[in-house]
C-alpha cells in the first residue's frame, strides 16, 4: 500500500513538473531566439562590413609591370644570402649540390649597379631542388619600400632553372596594394661570379591586382 501510494505521489509530481516545464517552453524559445537573432545580426553586420572593406568589389582589376634588379650577395663581410643547410656529403646528384639551402634578404634596385637606388627587399629562401640539373625552389616575398607600392609585397613560389637565360615563376599572392595578386615573374641573370656565387638578376614582373 505504501509503495503504491509513493508511486502515485511520484507520478503526480513528475506530471506537474512536466506541465510546468511545458508552460515555460515558449518563453525559453522566445528568449533563445532573441539572443540567437541578436548574435547573428551583430556577427552578420561585422562580416558584411569587414568584407566590404577588405574586398574591393567595385574596383577594376588591372595589370602592372614592375622592373627591378635583384642582388644576391654571398661573399664579403655583409652577405645578403647565407647558407643554412648543406648538401649531403654523399650526394649522388649530378651537380653534387642537391639540398643546399640559402636564406636571403637581398636588395632590389632600380638599376643594375649595386649603388643604384634600393626600392625593396627580396626576403625568403631558395634551395637546390633538382638532382639532375641546377634548379632552385624559390620561396620569397618582394617587399617594396619606395614609391607607390611602399609597404606592399608580392609572393613567389616556383621553380627557377638558373642556367636558363630567362626563367618564369608564378606570383601566388600579395599584400597591401597587391591583395589578391596573381601573375608571373621573368628572371634573367645579368651578372654572375662563379667563385663567390654572387649574382645580379633582372626581374620583369607582370601582376594582376586591384
UniProtKB/TrEMBL annotation:
It is found in: Secreted, Extracellular space, Apoplast. GO terms for cellular component: apoplast. Pfam families: Dirigent. It comes from the Eukaryota. Keywords: Apoplast, Membrane, Secreted, Transmembrane, Transmembrane helix. One of its GO terms (biological process) is phenylpropanoid biosynthetic process. The chain crosses the membrane at residues 21-42. Belongs to the plant dirigent protein family. Homodimer. Dirigent proteins impart stereoselectivity on the phenoxy radical-coupling reaction, yielding optically active lignans from two molecules of coniferyl alcohol in the biosynthesis of lignans, flavonolignans, and alkaloids and thus plays a central role in plant secondary metabolism. This is Dirigent protein. It comes from Trema orientale (Charcoal tree).
Amino acid at each position: 500500500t505504501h509503495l503504491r501510494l509513493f508511486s502515485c505521489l511520484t507520478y503526480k509530481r513528475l506530471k506537474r513538473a512536466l506541465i510546468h516545464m511545458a508552460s515555460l517552453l515558449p518563453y525559453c524559445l522566445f528568449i533563445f531566439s532573441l539572443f540567437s537573432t541578436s548574435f547573428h545580426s551583430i556577427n552578420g553586420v561585422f562580416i558584411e562590413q569587414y568584407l566590404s572593406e577588405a574586398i574591393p568589389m567595385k574596383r577594376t582589376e588591372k595589370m602592372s609591370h614592375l622592373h627591378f634588379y635583384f642582388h644576391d650577395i654571398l661573399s664579403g663581410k655583409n652577405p645578403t644570402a647565407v647558407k643554412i643547410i648543406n648538401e649531403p656529403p654523399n650526394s649522388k646528384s649530378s651537380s653534387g649540390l642537391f639540398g643546399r639551402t640559402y636564406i636571403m634578404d637581398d636588395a632590389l634596385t632600380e638599376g643594375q649597379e649595386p649603388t643604384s637606388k634600393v626600392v625593396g627587399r627580396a626576403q625568403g629562401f631558395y634551395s637546390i631542388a633538382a638532382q639532375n640539373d641546377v634548379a632552385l625552389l624559390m620561396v620569397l616575398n618582394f617587399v617594396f619600400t619606395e614609391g607607390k607600392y611602399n609597404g606592399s609585397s608580392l609572393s613567389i613560389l616556383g621553380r627557377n632553372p638558373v642556367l636558363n637565360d630567362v626563367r618564369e615563376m608564378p606570383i601566388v599572392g600579395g599584400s597591401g596594394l597587391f591583395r589578391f595578386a596573381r601573375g608571373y615573374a621573368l628572371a634573367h641573370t645579368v651578372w654572375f661570379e662563379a667563385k663567390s656565387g654572387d649574382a645580379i638578376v633582372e626581374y620583369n614582373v607582370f601582376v594582376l591586382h586591384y
